[in-house]
Amino acid sequence: MNQANTIQGRLITFKNWQRMAEQQTGKSALRQIREILALRKMGGRCGLSDYYWYKLYDAAYLNGRGVQDFLGWRLQAQVSLALNPRHVVLPAWDKIVFMTLADSVGLPVVPTAATFKACARLPGIFGKHLRTRDEAAEFLRDPCVYPLFGKPAYSQQGYGSAYIDRYEPALDRLVLLDGGSISVEEFLKRLDTTVDYRYHRPECGYLFQRPLRLAEPIESLTGWKAICGARVICLNGPEGSMPLRAIWKIAVPPNHVDNFSLGKYGNLLADIDPSSGSISRVIGGLWPETHLLGEHPVSGNPFTGFRLPDWSAVINYCQMIGQMIPMMRIQHIDFAFSDSGPRVLELNDIGSTELAQLHGHGLLTESACRFIKRFGNADTYSWIKGL
């Protein structure tokens, strides 16, 4: 029964997408199905979901070579697995490892007040070393340390993270940015117990970082103090690290993180011109259910003409990270824009290719295909030969 309901639900979703695509372009259902079937023969192996999510049904929306440039979600992990040998990607999974390397070469990382990890020593950049839950409890019950942004050293999609605004001694609770709260004892559980077995590894530690103050232009635009990070996808070869795509993730209230996660959090995505840092095409979800936004939905400020500050520094930091980990051929790097300049948040190995293709730009450009054929493991991932 559950399986039948799932199949029925998917059919309803598909029919809704089909109907909306026809309203937007005039394409009949039959023509859409023919185009979806034709996609499967292309190198990116796009399917039904990709066709609608990326608005591949609308040629006028697409850039470059059109549908030929798009990578299907089924190949998302395989691109990184083909380009990045497993023995070089630890810094992309463990934030403590990455921050140690980044700080050693002069990259600006986020200031850390304290770090929980059951080990003998940590570098000084990790602030106060909390080795036990008792030490962490004492730290969290100190009203003077707040506000803090807490996040696991090993986690994805914001699992286990929290923006803690203050401590309420009378209730022994931590008050969060969105107005909710959690008891200290309950919060301590995430230090040594996973909150999601797919994405969170508590044994790698937990970081308590000083919340960054947004760069003034961004704070004025959004009216919300949660960090709005940029994701830059770089191809890293002997000639240096070059940005392939760049996306700005815009957090909206009550979210304390900017994760997009296929639109389920309600945050926004803006297209970034990698050469200038100018933004365009701001959306709030997946096609065909989303639409372009001309202004911020909360502040009402226009997006037109907005340029991210200190963009040249971001590109320089991408090149430094590429030099630091030269055998990691594709790098998904997150940056925050603070009032003291850009800060490197983290490096990702298997990044979300969906968010990078929602603005009409596919990842499989001609130059990207040449790069993948040059450095990708085509013996194991035979689809590379068809690019």
TrEMBL record:
Stretches assigned to the Alpha-L-glutamate ligase-related protein ATP-grasp domain: 77-365
InterPro entries according to UniProt: RimK-rel_E_lig_ATP-grasp (IPR039523)
Descriptive protein name: Alpha-L-glutamate ligase-related protein ATP-grasp domain-containing protein
Organism: Dechloromonas hankyongensis
Species classification: Bacteria, Pseudomonadati, Pseudomonadota, Betaproteobacteria, Rhodocyclales
